[in-house]
Structures are given as structure tokens and as C-alpha cells.
Automatic annotation (TrEMBL):
Record flagged with keyword Isomerase: no
Short name of any one Pfam family annotated for the protein: Glyco_hydro_114
Keywords: Signal
Record protein name field: Endo alpha-1,4 polygalactosaminidase
Signal peptide, first to last residue: 1-23
Region feature Disordered, mapped onto this chain: 20-39
Domain of life according to the entry: Bacteria
Organism name: Streptomyces lavendofoliae
Length: 264
């Protein structure tokens, strides 16, 4: 009897097991070479106005549609990592691909002009559209993706979305980014941090100090992952002591998210 046969069969089983695709409901394996933002890194978040590339911070978060690859290249030459802002949970009527979204997936407005919540249960429709958007981020040379409006289940969307629907969709977006070698951030969605910590490489948060929610983000910091945080209504004296204690990457911004910033 050939004693190598059982060993060969075992090796084959391991190989096939390693090729099994990961469900959207489970975090995927870590991938070598992907950027990992670290706690405390300073950042600039600018989504409107003429981009100011002179801000001396290691991380920029800019609109993925509005900026060409040359802008990303310029920021890289300046030593910056660049995050691609996308709305993945809401439709925006001014985007070049807006006409590709069927009316059936468009829900109620989310409070911003020209934006409507998406029916995130319809992954058959949304997955290829979001894959194309994340392809754009990759092709322009971005290092990461900031997917916005990722907490529709906690809002009035016009659809009966559940927490399970949101988990499944958020993991889908994380997988699409990771498959393209990009880091991905969890935007807000604080209640699902325990379930999603393993799927996301950093967090982006608005106004956790104003709403007394910042400690909820500590699992990211404890895992060695950055929390990029902004406040709009509080002064820096009101939130920076807490932000520094929690090792958040915090700054004061205007709602327009133009170039102005006041970091902690």
C-alpha cells in the first residue's frame, strides 16, 4: 500500500478548502499588502471646492468621481495615502452612472438634495454597480474606499431593511474592496461594529462626540485600526481631549467638507 496516498488526499482537501469562496455573511481572510491605517494618523477630508493638496497630513479622503488619476498620483508623490469616497448606500442623481439604477431600488430621500436610499437587499442589482465604482477607485490608484450611507437599516429608507440585511450588504462592499486590493472603512454604523470589525480596515465617523458615542469606536483602535473622525457643531476644546484619550484621528470641519479644517 502506498503510504503517501492518505497524505496526498489530505493535502488535496486542504487545497480545495482554501479555494472555497467566502460568504458575504462572514469576514474574509486578511490579504497581505493592503494598506492598514493606524490609530492617531492625521487626515484631511475634502469633498467640495478646489482640492487643497498642500495640507501636511499623511491621509486624504476625496471624492472618487470628482478627481482623476493624476490627482491621486500627485498626492502619492507628496507622500499621502488617498481614500476614495463613494456613496454605496444611497443614490445620487448627479453621478455619471445614476441612470443605471432602476427605479425599484430607489427609496426615500436621505436628507440631502438629489439623494435617495437604496434597497440594499437587491444585491443582484447593486453588486455589479458597486463593483464598477470600486473598479474606478482601483484604476485611479486609490489606496482605500470610504463607502458612505452604510446604515440604512437604522433610517427611514422606504424599505423594510433589517440589521441582517445591513450586515450582509456591508460585508459585500468590504469584500469588493478587498478583492481589488483596497482597504475599506466602516462609515458610522456604530451598533454593528462588534460584528463588522473583522471585515473593515478602519472607521470613519461623524459627530460621535456630540452624541456621546465615541467609546463605541474603541474596538477599532484596540485592533490597531484608525478611526477618522469629524465634528461639526462642537468646538475643539469640547471634543479633542476625549479624542486624544481614545486615540481618534479627529478634526473640526464645516458641513460642506471643503478645505477648511481644525485638527485636534
Amino acid at each position: 500500500m502506498n503510504r503517501r496516498v492518505p497524505l496526498l488526499l489530505a493535502a488535496l482537501a486542504l487545497l480545495l478548502g482554501g479555494c472555497t469562496s467566502t460568504s458575504d455573511d462572514e469576514p474574509g481572510p486578511p490579504r497581505a499588502g493592503r494598506w492598514q491605517p493606524e490609530p492617531g494618523q492625521q487626515w484631511q477630508w475634502q469633498l467640495s471646492g478646489r482640492l487643497d493638496t498642500s495640507v501636511d497630513v499623511p491621509v486624504y479622503d476625496i471624492d472618487g468621481f470628482d478627481h482623476p488619476a493624476t490627482t491621486v498620483d500627485d498626492l502619492h508623490r507628496r507622500g499621502r495615502k488617498v481614500i476614495c469616497y463613494l456613496s454605496t448606500g444611497a443614490w445620487e442623481d448627479w453621478r455619471p452612472d445614476a441612470g443605471k439604477f432602476p427605479a425599484a431600488v430607489l427609496g426615500q430621500g436621505n436628507g440631502w438634495d438629489g439623494e435617495r436610499w437604496l434597497d440594499i437587499r437587491r444585491t443582484d442589482v447593486l453588486e455589479p454597480l458597486m463593483a464598477d465604482r470600486i473598479d474606478m477607485c482601483r484604476d485611479k490608484g486609490f489606496d482605500a474606499v470610504e463607502p458612505d450611507n452604510m446604515d440604512g437599516y437604522a433610517n427611514r429608507t422606504g424599505f423594510p431593511l433589517t440589521a441582517a440585511d445591513q450586515l450582509r450588504y456591508n460585508r459585500l462592499i468590504a469584500r469588493l474592496a478587498h478583492e481589488r486590493g483596497l482597504a475599506v472603512g466602516l462609515k458610522n454604523d456604530l451598533d454593528q461594529i462588534p460584528q463588522l470589525l473583522g471585515d473593515f480596515d478602519f472607521a470613519v465617523n461623524e459627530q460621535c462626540a456630540e452624541y456621546d458615542e465615541c467609546p463605541s469606536l474603541s474596538p477599532f483602535v484596540e485592533a490597531g485600526k484608525a478611526v477618522f473622525h469629524v465634528e461639526y457643531e462642537l468646538g475643539t476644546r469640547e471634543f479633542c481631549p476625549l479624542a486624544k484619550r481614545l486615540r481618534l484621528s479627529s478634526m473640526l470641519k464645516r458641513y460642506a467638507l471643503d478645505a477648511w479644517r481644525k485638527p485636534c
